[in-house]
Every structure is written in structure tokens, then in C-alpha cells.
């Protein structure tokens, strides 16, 4: 985050400092006033004024630490108050919708989820169910939401939340953001699921200490989210991260829905993993995960792993990340497979060798990554307004 310039008005400086302090507490949790002053580069009187103002507004509170060390009076901890700002996070998948109410500081206050079948994937029905569930949860939790974040597979236009292309959902052209805003009467932010998975990993997952990382997701198709120099790579109009459509097998590959032959996702997407496991390509997600967990001979995934390593080596060579996080379905891969893929990528990638070896890990957030990312997307404007 850049600081205010010398010509900035005092009220703008206070707003900037207030937002920076809130963002620090929201992301990293409770802290003492002294630590906040040191981390944010502000003097103690400024921190005192900010904390006192936020405490008076009920946004933060100060408490004695539960665990004390040393003699003398302990320093009070400044804690974000979850109910001071609550957002609705929604993760729309091909087979399921998950929803959570998330408070300031990242605490999940309540959850709901339901399965989508072919007859219940109509956007109007899904939106109706989302609205009804959100209202019921708000009543049960006795909270008032201030914003909404939505994760959707496919290409999403960030300016208005229109789903430009989501072939497995058949939602092409759906103005999801505008339609939800109209019925929920709240600001709605909509983002690509893999992009939000990357945001979640960067803020609360495996990539907290990484300023350059790539998140790879598999939910029927394959998508990628990219963080470079600590910032999301979004591209023109938000169209970026379609890593699954990198062509890796143009001569002998399968036809992709995008019109190309041999896209990476035709070799490492969920149907390809089903084929490797001897399952029908349309096997339920639960059956695929169960088969991976029970797998006794990981060598059946050798060809799948070769294609995975090939694509990852290309990605590392182009983007140069210090970390690649495998999310979603890939978190169920045997660790021996992930380790072998990592070794192959380091051997094949010039960039990986140059940076001392790009790490490849599975997501600790699992299926929650995109829900958490949707919450953080919703909080971006909220923190500025508190």
C-alpha cells in the first residue's frame, strides 16, 4: 500500500492511516499499540487517536492478553470486532453453492451450502436460493451485512459482475453482480474463482509470505490466479488466468470447449483425472476424492502427473513465481505425486532453477479457499469505508 503524498489533506491522511490500521488487524489479527506503530510507521500518539476512535465506534476493542509473559502490567491487545462489519461470501461451483457470513478479522460466523443438479443450475433459481439463504442466516446470526463477494468459475467482467463465459454452468451473459445487488440491496463484487483462490492463499493461506505466486484450481476445468509483486494480476477487463487453455498437446489432444485441441485442462482437469483413476468422466466430486484418498498405487497417475508438470513448468518459466499452490481437487492428490511433480518442474524450468527452486504445495485452505477469497473481495471497499 502506498502512503499519502506530501500534498495530501489532513483528513485524507487520517483516512489512509485508519484504513491501513484496520487492514492490518483484519488480515493479521490482534496486536499491541506499540507493534501497530512500528509496523505501520506511525507515532504512538497517532495510533492512540486511531485506536480510540475505532474503539468508540465499536470497530475494535482492547483486551488483556489471555497468555501473559514476564512481570509488570501487560500491554493491551487491539482486537477487531467481527460483528462490526460482516460480509456475505458466496462460492458458486458447478455442482454446489457454498455461502458464509464473515466478520471483520476473517471469522466465519455462519455457513450454508447446497448441491446443484442439472435442473437447479438455472441462474434465476440459484439467485433466489442465495437470497433466501442469506436472509435466513442474517436473522439467525442477528447481523446486518455490508457487502457481498461472489466467486464464479469462468470469465467474469469485474466492472459489473457479468459472467462472460462459464460453459459448465451455462451462465454466459448473466449479469450476476447487478442482479444480486438489485435483490440484496448491497454492493456486490464478483470475481473469477481461481483469482479469488489466489487472493485467499495470499492473505490467509500458504502464500502469506510470498509476493509472487500462482494458484491452480481444478473444478471440471482448470483455472489460475496470479499474484505478482504482492498485487493480483487481473489483465484487461479482468480477463486473465485462463491457464487451462494453454495448448500443450495440439496434435494428439482432445477437443476443448474453447475450440482448440489439446488445452492443458483436457489433460489435467477433473475428467482427465477421472480417466486416470478408471472412473466415468462425469463421476461425482466425492467419488473422485474418495478414489484419490484410497489410491494404493500412485503410478496410475504417472501420465496425468507428466502433463501437470509440463504445464506448471511453462507457467513458472513465464511468470517466475516463488510459490505455486495447488488448490481444489488437487489437494487430494497423493503427496508422492505432488513431490514428483515439483521435482520435474525444478528440473525442466530454467526460471525455477534460477530462483533456487519454485515451491509447489497443496492449499491448506482446501475447498474454503474460494469462499475466503470472495469474503476478502467484499472487504476491499468495506475497510476503506469503516
Q: Can you tell me about this structure?
A:
With 386 residues, the protein is α/β, with parallel strands linked by helices. Helices cover 40% and strands 21% of the residues. The chain has a five-stranded mixed beta sheet, sandwiched between helices. Strand 13 and strand 14 form a beta hairpin. The model has no long low-confidence stretch (mean pLDDT 91). The protein has helices at 10-28, 33-40, 44-56, 123-141, 176-184, 193-204, 264-268, 270-277, 285-293, 302-319, 335-348, 350-354, 369-385; strands at 31-32, 60-63, 77-80, 86-92, 96-103, 108-115, 145-152, 155-157, 162-165, 174-175, 188-192, 213-219, 221-228, 231-232, 323-326, 359-362.
Task: Please give a quick description of this structure.
With 386 residues, the protein is an alpha/beta fold. The chain contains 13 helices and 16 strands. It is globular.
Number of strands: 16
- Tell me the number of helical segments per DSSP (H or I, 4 or more residues long): 13
Shape verdict: globular
Strand order of the largest sheet: 6-5-4-7-11
What is the percent of helical residues? 40-55%
What is the overall pLDDT average? 91
Amino acid at each position: 500500500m502506498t502512503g499519502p503524498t506530501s500534498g495530501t489533506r489532513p483528513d485524507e491522511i487520517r483516512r489512509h492511516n485508519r484504513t491501513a490500521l484496520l487492514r492490518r488487524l483484519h488480515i493479521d489479527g490482534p496486536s499491541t499499540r506499540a507493534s501497530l506503530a512500528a509496523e505501520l510507521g506511525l507515532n504512538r500518539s497517532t495510533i492512540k487517536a486511531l485506536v480510540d476512535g475505532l474503539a468508540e465506534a465499536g470497530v475494535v476493542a482492547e483486551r488483556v492478553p489471555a497468555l501473559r509473559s514476564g512481570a509488570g502490567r501487560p500491554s493491551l491487545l487491539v482486537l477487531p470486532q467481527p460483528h462490526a462489519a460482516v460480509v456475505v461470501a458466496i462460492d458458486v461451483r458447478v455442482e454446489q453453492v457454498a455461502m458464509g457470513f464473515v466478520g471483520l478479522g476473517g471469522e466465519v460466523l455462519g455457513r450454508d451450502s447446497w448441491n446443484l443438479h442439472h435442473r437447479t443450475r438455472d441462474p434465476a433459481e440459484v439467485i433466489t436460493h442465495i437470497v433466501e439463504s442469506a436472509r435466513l442466516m442474517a436473522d439467525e446470526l442477528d447481523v446486518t451485512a455490508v457487502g457481498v463477494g461472489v466467486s464464479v468459475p469462468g470469465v467474469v467482467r469485474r466492472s459489473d459482475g457479468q459472467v462472460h463465459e462459464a460453459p459448465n454452468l451455462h451462465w454466459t451473459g448473466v449479469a450476476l453482480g447487478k442482479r444480486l445487488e438489485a435483490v440484496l440491496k448491497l454492493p456486490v463484487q464478483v470475481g473469477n474463482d481461481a483469482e479469488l483462490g489466489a487472493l485467499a492463499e495470499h492473505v490467509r493461506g500458504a502464500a502469506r509470505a510470498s509476493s509472487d505466486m500462482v494458484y491452480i484450481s481444478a473444478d471440471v476445468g482448470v483455472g489460475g490466479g496470479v499474484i505478482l509483486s504482492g498485487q493480483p494480476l487481473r489483465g484487461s477487463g479482468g480477463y486473465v488466468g485462463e491457464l487451462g487453455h494453454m495448448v500443450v498437446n495440439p496434435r494428439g489432444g482432445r477437443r476443448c470447449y474453447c475450440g482448440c485441441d489439446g488445452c492443458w485442462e483436457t489433460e489435467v482437469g477433473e475428467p482427465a483425472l477421472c480417466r486416470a483413476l478408471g472412473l466415468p468422466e462425469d463421476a461425482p466430486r466425492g467419488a473422485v476424492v474418495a478414489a484419490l484418498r484410497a489410491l494404493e498405487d500412485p503410478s496410475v497417475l504417472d501420465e496425468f502427473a507428466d502433463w501437470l508438470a509440463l504445464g506448471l513448468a511453462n507457467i513458472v518459466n513465464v511468470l517466475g513465481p516463488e510459490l505455486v499452490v495447488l488448490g481444489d481437487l488437487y489437494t487430494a492428490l497423493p503427496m508422492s505425486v505432488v513431490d514428483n511433480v515439483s521435482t520435474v518442474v525444478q528440473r525442466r524450468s530454467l526460471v525455477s532453477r534460477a530462483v533456487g527452486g519454485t515451491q509447489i504445495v497443496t492449499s491448506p485452505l482446501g475447498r474454503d479457499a474460494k469462499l475466503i477469497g470472495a469474503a476478502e473481495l467484499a472487504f476491499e471497499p468495506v475497510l476503506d469505508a469503516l
